[in-house]
Amino acid sequence: MAKENLYQSLEVFYEKVTVCPLRDRKFNFFELVYVISGKGTHLVNGHQIAYSPGNLFLITPNDCHQFDLQGICEFMVVRFGQNYIKEYQWKSIDHVECLLYYASHFSGSVVVNQEDEKMVGVLMQQLHYAIEYNHLYNEDLIRHLVNAVIVIAARNLSLMKPGNISANADVRILQILDYIQEHIRHPDQLKIGIIADVFGLSSTYLGEYFRKQCGETIQNYISSYRIRLIEHRLRFSDRRVHEISDEFGFADESHINKFFKRHRGRSLRAYRKELQNSSTGTR
Asked: CB 75: neighbour CB atoms within 10 A?
């Protein structure tokens, strides 16, 4: 299987095609594909979903995907890599991390809110105009428009249920998941007793309820989410281990390394070194 690489932090382009130019490919970057016109099927990691105008798809690194087109189709494509994530200082919430975490659970259009879909449509029109007419400060304008699209996508993804959650999950479990994500950097707020008190439940009932709704223990969910965010810090930031340790509420480097090694079998520094070697092709 061929692998596509991105050699700049951000790339935006428009295409009007009858056949997908890149089929059965894996990328080393993120790609947002917006459907301007046309219909067909999007295939990603073995899943198939029909697409139509207004859909926005997110393809993450190492996803295998292609589009099967029914006639002429128009797309706006936004590609961004590790450097782009490093360069932009996200505020309020970790929008990019939100994308990273939820994208693996969802293969359909990442914008489900109708008002947001209209907003993305307007932003994509402006992006199309910006790349067609190269005016003053164009690069800054394009980056602001792309960032707005990413934030909207993240907002919609944050409202979607994780892949293993029950189809009949109620509002309370989504509120609990939101609480965990909001307080993931504050371990003292994620003790089972504390969470149970916040939602007016007993600790025993909370554990049983969470397992029934999500198919895993609440402790496992919290650990998995924290591990994923730590991995993102190692991959997409230059923060030192002690800084990551402080951010996620560990007592010191030895505690975070013990936690990380229990789940990933190696220290944070060893994990980051593997990532660096992988990106340069060295061993």
From this structure: 21
